[in-house]
Design brief:
- It contains three helices and 20 strands.
- By secondary structure, it is an alpha+beta fold.
- The protein has three domains: 182 residues, Elongation Factor Tu (Ef-tu), domain 3 (Beta Barrel); 49 residues, no CATH class; 75 residues, Helix Hairpins (Orthogonal Bundle), CATH 1.10.287.
- Strands 1-19-16-17-20 form a five-stranded mixed barrel.
- Helix 2 packs antiparallel against helix 3.
- The protein is elongated and about 120 Å long.
Length: 360
């Protein structure tokens, strides 16, 4: 007990000395955080029409073999990302190489024959011009020259084909993308045109959905939509309709609409379900806040509302986007001020100083 009393006296003495010698210390408060605010607004907008669709790759290709032969190696695994020009598979090309080498040797002989026939023709022409040989002898010399030249041209064409086949025995990626399926394996015989791999490019993703016939006149290119991806934790992306296909699916009597999404980090996968929300229905009143007021954290989505000089963190649920605003639901009221700048490091119940108000 005596020790506790001593500690208490020392603590009181230290506090007294701190107040005496550092009078500002006891009164110091964290500075007010400067913030820019904007008001929560209410708008009457059309209710969204929900369209069910799916995601598709911007480019998709089933790559086939241009030559016959046995698969020597599959260089890219299923699911592997491959850059344009990199090798997907190799077909054994020993026979092609041997045939090409043989053709090149034949070309050397053909060139020698062509050179000799040119000399013979020149000599025969000189004799013919002097009247020493007959028309028949001259015609035979000319025919021999033309035949030798034709044979050389034929060899050149066969060499070009063999060189093309040799290059085609290495099957390369036509663009950046992922191998999605092997249609062949090492040791398998491939005929001309047989499938080797399926390949997709998802740098850009297309979302396709069907619009019922009764709504098609209300849909147009450039209209704002919200793309919701259920398989990606209900990721919601603001976008625009890229095109409306004027040819209905006869099975559903719905018209396809197309939305293009840039996907550089490949977050969005192909053949996933997607929902398009298009505002063309009856009207409803919704609460809107500027997009910059939304703060996302591991604890959830929130906005900071300024009430009596203090920043209050209020959980909200994002319902979508509308003309640069975020449609939210939660414990905020129309007309309240939400922080749009300076909210990066704010804490709930922290004092704030409003430096500007952005009018909507």
């Amino acid at each position: 007990m005596e020790n506790e009393a001593v500690v208490m006296r020392i603590t009181v003495l230290m506090l007294f000395l701190a107040v005496c010698f550092f009078p500002g210390l006891s009164l110091a408060q964290p500075p007010d955080a400067p913030v820019v605010v904007s008001a929560v607004v209410e708008r009457e907008v059309k209710k969204p029409l929900r369209l069910v669709g799916a995601t598709f790759p911007a480019r998709k290709s089933t790559i086939s073999s241009e030559v016959e032969g046995v698969v020597g190696k599959m260089n890219a695994e299923e699911g592997q990302y491959v850059k344009k020009g990199e090798t997907l598979a190799e077909i054994k090309n020993d026979k092609i190489r041997f045939a090409l080498e043989q053709l090149k040797n034949e070309r050397k002989e053909a060139l020698a024959r062509a050179e000799l026939s040119e000399k013979d023709f020149a000599r025969m022409k000189e004799l013919y011009d002097k009247g020493i040989i007959s028309d028949g002898d001259f015609d035979r010399a000319r025919t021999q020259r033309e035949s030798t030249q034709a044979g050389l041209l034929s060899l050149e064409s066969r060499i070009e084909i063999a060189e093309y086949d040799l290059a085609a025995s290495r099957i390369a990626a036509p663009f950046n993308g992922y191998v999605t399926k092997h249609h062949a394996e090492a040791g398998q015989w491939l005929g001309l045109g047989d499938k080797v791999v399926s390949f997709v490019d998802i740098d850009t993703i297309e979302v396709m959905a069907g619009v019922p016939e009764r709504y098609v006149d209300d849909i147009s290119e450039g209209m704002e939509v919200e793309v919701i991806l259920p398989s990606h934790n209900r990721l919601t992306i603001p976008a625009e309709i890229s095109s409306v296909i004027p040819d209905a699916d006869p099975r559903t009597v719905s018209f396809p609409v197309r939305v293009v999404l840039e996907n550089p980090d490949h977050t969005i996968k192909s053949s996933a379900s997607a929902i398009l929300m298009v505002r063309i229905g009856e009207t409803e009143k919704i609460k809107l806040v500027p997009k910059d007021s939304i703060v996302r954290s591991p604890q959830g989505t929130m906005v900071f509302v300024v009430r009596e000089g203090l920043a209050h963190s209020v959980p909200v649920e994002e319902k979508g986007w509308y003309e640069g605003f975020t449609h939210v639901e939660g414990g905020i009221s129309v007309g309240e001020s939400v922080v749009v700048r300076g909210n990066e490091r704010l804490m709930s119940m922290q004092k704030v100083r409003i430096t500007d108000t952005i009018e909507q």
